[in-house]
Design a protein that fits this description.
It is built from 10 helices and 4 strands. The chain has a 4-stranded antiparallel sheet with strand order 1-2-3-4. Helices cover about 55% and strands about 10% of the residues. The protein folds into 2 domains: about 70 residues, no CATH class; about 130 residues, no CATH class.
Length: about 220
């Protein structure tokens, strides 16, 4: 019986949910290296399963050289550094990147700060950065107000190029914000300094967000 394999050709064909599963598998793979003679077999077959929908048993029926080619192709996709993806489609809904990050509410920032760095919860952070588009004219659009967990499940299907590009964008933006904050604090009053220290001590602060993003992007080699 001939086995048909759907091989992704673009980063946008992969989803956040798939990538989260892939990262979990990588953790298992690293743990197996000292315990199993052929951990690469596990890695290749699980990569096929996650990104191509080929179960373990069917994966064993594919020629070794073909498996290696497919896995190499997927690894090439995962190493890409995409430009910021402004809009994407999930089902019948079009989502758009938040047009004005300056208008982000404190609650939205907390949800990003809380969930960045944890790939099991990354969809919750993405739900802040991308919202359903309610009105669009050319390249300009208006997005819905943030509504907490309403779109958390949908965001698990966010195209991976949108996820990775938004993380890179937000990381560089965070550096700019941090530099601006440093300049501000040099001229700040004692009251402002105490307020800033309180926020940092509670774990809510742009520096913590930048650190989490840096660690995440280093792990992704982006």
């Amino acid at each position: 019986m001939e086995l048909k394999v759907n091989i992704p050709t673009k980063l946008s064909e992969l989803s956040l949910q798939q990538y989260s599963k892939y990262l979990e598998m990588i953790t298992q793979y690293d743990q197996m290296k000292d315990e199993t003679k052929n951990p690469d077999v596990f890695y290749m077959l699980k990569t096929l399963e996650i990104f191509c929908g080929i179960n373990y048993e069917d994966g064993l029926k594919i020629r070794l050289q073909d498996v290696r080619k497919i896995v190499n192709k997927i690894e090439e996709l995962l190493s890409q550094k995409p430009d910021l993806v402004r809009t994407f489609q999930v089902g019948d809904t079009e989502f758009g990147f938040i047009p004005k990050l300056d208008d982000m509410t404190f609650g939205e920032y907390i949800d990003i700060d809380t969930n960045l760095g944890n790939w099991n919860n990354m969809h919750k952070a993405i739900a802040v950065l991308y919202r359903p588009i309610k009105k669009k004219s050319g390249d300009k659009y208006l997005i819905e107000e943030y509504r907490g967990d309403v779109y958390h499940e949908a965001m698990k299907h966010t195209p991976l190029d949108a996820v990775l590009s938004s993380l890179v964008f937000f990381y560089h933006l965070g550096i700019d914000l941090s530099n601006a904050m440093t300049k501000y604090l040099e001229e700040a009053s004692q009251t402002d300094l105490e307020r800033y220290k309180t926020l940092e001590g509670s774990g809510v602060g742009i520096n913590r967000c930048i650190r989490l993003l840096r660690e995440t992007l280093q792990d992704l080699r982006i």
